[in-house]
Amino acid sequence: MEPTSKDQSTAATTTTTTLADTSTSDEERFEDANEKAVDEVIEQVTGLSMGTSPKTNTSSSSEQTDKFVDCRSDPGSDEETLTGKGSAAEESSSGEREDDYIDDESQRDFEKSLSEEERLANKVKAEELKAQGNELFKQGEYQKSAEMYTAALRICPVDFSAERSILYANRAAAKTKLNFKPSAIDDCTKAIEHNPKYLKALLRRATLYEEADKLDESLEDFKQILELDPDNAEARAAQARLPPKIQERNERMKEEMMGKLKDLGNMILRPFGLSTQNFEMKQDPSTGSYSINFKSGGAGGGK
Q1: What is the separation, in whole angstroms, between the first and last Cα of the chain?
Q2: How does 224-240 read in b/e, with b if 16+ C-beta sit within 10 Å?
Q3: Average pLDDT, whole number, for the chain?
Q4: pLDDT-derived band at 120, boundaries 50, 70, 90
Q5: Whether this model's pTM surpasses 0.70
Q6: Residue in 176, 134, 121 with CA at minimum distance from that of residue 188
Q7: Could you give the domains of the chain?
Q8: How many CA atoms within 13 Å lie on the side-chain side of 83?
């Protein structure tokens, strides 16, 4: 059966539509969607216009700045991700926030396609976002300030370590105010990775470690602070305060462990009419190790 002129017209239209759809690559559409999502969120939080929608601006890439958005969630969920809406923004049982994850390696790969001019423009925009985050922090808007720092981290080029270090440290301060302490510790760690001599980040992490009862880690941070700043009063006080607390904790843990071992021993020995009462444990003062000896005087059931 020969195709009618109507069929031929429909086929031509379908072919034209298919060709038009392939004129823009998947990668370009993905980047455009991410750029628009980030701009919309920034505008929603700050009321400032941070960019022009790709649909209405066809200028060259040198006239715009490119932004990286993590692909941890669907591209369409970026607004929920940054504004703290939806289940992805909920704090997990460990205190972690999954809405502000920054994948440095993926961001570095993304930035390979940017020109030096675009990278510098992104750095400038990141500084603007940081300033807005700082102002929100001063106003007590800690959630919004954290979101501004996240947006800045997703724009600021990865190799600008000093700038990224400050952004992570500032976000850690906001999270501390929000009582997201495990996540704040992670941000302090990222800040220190970018700048190992960053005293403010070290002090904040050391304090958070102590509050989380991670006393050994806290003491190590305070020792590092004293190496960088021998006159630091907080670190000096911590060096006097923490060792006794660590010793007390270790003794408590040892007693708890010995109690559990005693219960286990009694359970094993009970079928033989014995208990841990039939044994004595002595510690060698030179090595700190223990030896267990059977008490003379015969076996006896113990409780």
Answers
A1: 97
A2: bbbeebeebeebeebee
A3: 75
A4: very high
A5: no
A6: 176
A7: 101-195 (1.25.40.10), 197-280 (1.25.40)
A8: 16
